Amino acid sequence: MKNERVKKLQSITLTSGQIKELAKDCERLNIRGSVTLHQEIHLKEISTHGFSTFQSHVAADLLKSSGSCVIKGNCEVKEIINAGNLKMKNLRTAKFYSSGRLTIEQTLHSEQFESIGIIAAKEINTKHFQLKLSGKSRINRLIAEEAHIEKDRKSIALKKKLICHLIKGKQLHLASTDAKFVEGDVVVVGSQCNIETLTYTESCTISPDATVQQIIRSKNL
């Protein structure tokens, strides 16, 4: 078997400052302090641990954030791993993993979304959505083919709740969720849910520990 040599990415590490232009051959950016970047960013990898602000568009294959990170422009990243406090405007990604706090000011589009933590978002649109609540989260519109929402059993916070205006999808499994509208093909409403209007096409199951004010059977959503 031939040994394949793995190309080492050209990297730069920043610890402070207002950065207006990165080196053109930079492929991997490491932030280890307090840094603000003003230019559009097109890299393979970004790793930020500290306080980072991106003022413009960000594109990358991988973003790892374990500090406080703000992206003010649009963001297109194939995979994101968040273990800190991440605030974004618009995001397109394939895979998103979060174990911290996430804020989406407008819309997040993804293939796969998994989170253990707290979310504040205007809209999340994804194929596979999984959230383990460690506190109070708010999502105005959640649209997913499959959605699983439950409490995180390891955290000690008392108020573990998701509050939504609309949840819409094909397979919905909800717990500890307050929503005005829930629309799905197969809907399971678990414990400590409060739903104003539930619309389903195939089946619905409601826990004795949940409240649903109105149930509608529909042929099409």
In short:
By secondary structure, the protein is mainly β. The chain contains no helices and 14 strands.
The major beta sheet can be summarized as: 5 strands, parallel, barrel
Multimeric state: single chain
Helix content: under 10%
Number of strands: 14
> In percent, how much strand structure appears in the residues?
over 45%
Distance between the termini: 54 Å
**Average of the residue pLDDT scores:** 94
* Helix and strand run: EEEEEEEEEEEEEE
Count of helical segments?
Answer: 0
Overall geometry comes to elongated
Provide the gyration radius in Å: 20 Å
| Low-pLDDT residue spans | 1-6
Strand order of the largest sheet: 2-4-6-7-5
Based on helices, strands and strand pairing, what is the structural class? Answer: mainly beta
Topology overview:
Blueprint: E1 11-19, E2 28-37, E3 41-42, E4 45-48, E5 51-54, E6 58-65, E7 68-82, E8 85-98, E9 101-133, E10 136-151, E11 161-174, E12 177-189, E13 194-206, E14 211-217
Parallel strand pairs: 1-2, 2-4, 2-5, 3-6, 4-6, 5-7, 6-7, 7-8, 8-9, 9-10, 10-11, 11-12, 12-13, 13-14
Molecular structure report:
The chain is mainly β. 0% of the residues lie in helices and 73% in strands. The chain is built from no helices and 14 strands. It is elongated.
Question: What attributes characterize this protein structure?
Answer:
221 residues; mainly beta; five-stranded parallel barrel; 14 strands; disordered N terminus
